[in-house]
Amino acid sequence: MALPRTTLEQWVVLQTVIEQGSFAQAATVLNRSQSSVSYALSGLQERLGLPLLEITGRKATLTEQGRALLAQAAPLISSFLQLEHRAAGLRGGVRTELSLVVDSVFPKNLLFRALKCFQQQFPDTQVHLTEILRGESPGQLNERSADLYLTTLAPENAIHGRFLLDVDFVPVAKSDHPLLQLPVPLSAEDLARFPLITVADRRSPRSDNRAAGQAANWTFTTVEAAMEAISVGVGYGWLPLGSVGPALESGVLSRLTLSARTVRQTALYMVMDKESQNFDQTVHALSQSILAACGLLP
After folding, report:
1. Which of 144, 130, 236 is nearest to 181 (CA)?
2. I need a labelling partner for 136 at 20 to 30 A (CA). Which of 44, 76, 221, 253 fits?
3. What's the mean pLDDT in 121-137?
């Protein structure tokens, strides 16, 4: 296989000259002498056998051939620089990939704020995100296949996680649902006449222990699907306030007034291995971004 006749350095010099507009400015940016810049470009044009530059006064512009070739070379320059950045990260102990498991009710605005912050610090680290339902949390934690978990914990296990926030669940129904035509507060008997929409893991056992006159419950595997079902009037349900906020504001959904408590809370925690927390700077940085998004860091 033949080796390339031109070098990446020569293409970078050409790109810099065009960006800066002159040999002198390019030499300053590259911290090189003007003669070395001129020599690199002369060698590039000689090896290609094509004129790449036109000099008008003191300004350097591309010829038609130069424009076409530099456009093809630019992505290669960018890719090579990314390669060197990744190598520097690996030399410093930066991970190339992380796996994050997140409960589906974790507020998306906080999650993506944290991921954006982390991306700005580690642009070459890929984050593989898996959403789970509350019923899946114990199994996921037992597998320990991820670097970081944002999930619910049983009370006896809460000591092993860092508390992040409470997610508020509120009872909602479509604004013209028959439940909203009944006298308030609504009783358990009122609710039992209509399907309850729930979110559950696919592996959760199914049972039908309904009392006489109680409507059948409907189960969905995502919060989004459950909210859509409630929005078209299939039934009522308890959904995260952060998820249903826009639908409540627009009037598509309405909160139900119950005789019992009208807000339920689910605590979410962050869990990771102590070894990762203490020695893995990439996992530690992601955890710090999440804590900051949740308002737990100054």
Report:
1. 236
2. 253
3. 85
Residue whose tokens read 């000259």? 17
Per residue in 93-115, pLDDT (tens digit) is: 778 889 999 999 999 999 999 99
Summary count for the chain: helices (H), strands (E): 11, 11
Among all chains, which residue has been given the structure tokens 């993506």? Answer: 112
237: which 2 tokens?
A: 């349900």
20-56 in b/e burial notation, b at 16+ Cβ within 10 A?
bebbebbbeebeeeeeebeebbebbbeeeeeebbeee
- Residue indicated by tokens 């979410």: 268
Q: H or E stretch including 119?
A: helix 108-121
Rounded Cα gap, residues 196 and 100, in angstroms: 31
Say what the pTM is: 0.66
